[in-house]
Amino acid sequence: AQSVTQLDSQVPVFEEAPVELRCNYSSSVSVYLFWYVQYPNQGLQLLLKYLSGSTLVESINGFEAEFNKSQTSFHLRKPSVHISDTAEYFCAVSGISDYKLSFGAGTTVTVRA
Amino acid sequence: DTEVTQTPKHLVMGMTNKKSLKCEQHMGHRAMYWYKQKAKKPPELMFVYSYEKLSINESVPSRFSPECPNSSLLNLHLHALQPEDSALYLCASSQSERSSYNEQFFGPGTRLTVL
User: For testing the chain B interface, which of A4, A35, A99 should be mutated: the one with the most B CBs within 10 Å?
Assistant: First the structure.
């Protein structure tokens, strides 16, 4: 089984400042890792994913995450946030031959002007 | 088409009502999922359908009854719900249940209120 710990429940940040959301996972098998974003009153959208290959993955809207196997982490970063990045962010993990996504508790990002 | 659609967007029902939630995808995915999400919490898996057959039931009470009429449609029938069942119900789909690439695509959800 896999589990995920998101170390920050709330992250307030000013517009144009950088942000980092921390995610650590636990698993006895190889994993796939995901970050999902949920805007207010909406469903979940996949932000980015790590399946294999390069440990640094990027999204189209400026987020990036780095898979660190030795530290079992998959932290999410953005160098400069916008008001529109205000949302709930969920880190998730699945075993590579597993149907089940295990979600972290979520991090609420609030961007202020 | 990379979209999962869900209807209705909002639903208010009494504890004696019977209602259904509907989910649809046209991506050719063969695995479909129902999740329940309470406010400020992560989604909790309820059911998994794989190739139109119920694959996983995460010990969900029988007042929730899933149905998969075909590979594109997933329903969740609701009967005799309790107020604590009020939540956002999310549908998701993926290529297959145990593929090597289980990216799940989520719908926008149905916000359910049980009075």
Answer: A99
Report the C-alpha gap between B72 and B110 in whole angstroms.
18
| Interchain proximity B101–A42, CB inside 8 Å | no
Distance CA B43, CA B51 (A): 23
- pLDDT tens across A68-99, in order? 999 999 999 999 999 999 999 999 998 887 77
DSSP state of B104: P
Q: What is the block-wise mean pLDDT of chain B (115 residues), using blocks of 10 residues?
A: 89 93 94 94 94 91 96 96 96 75 86 95
Tokens encoding A105: 């508790």
Position with higher pLDDT, B64 vs A61: B64
Is B95 in CB contact (< 8 Å) with chain A?
no
> A36 near A52, Cβ under 8 Å?
no
d(CA A24, CA B30): 30
CA trace torsion B11, B14, B17, B22 (10° rounding) = 20
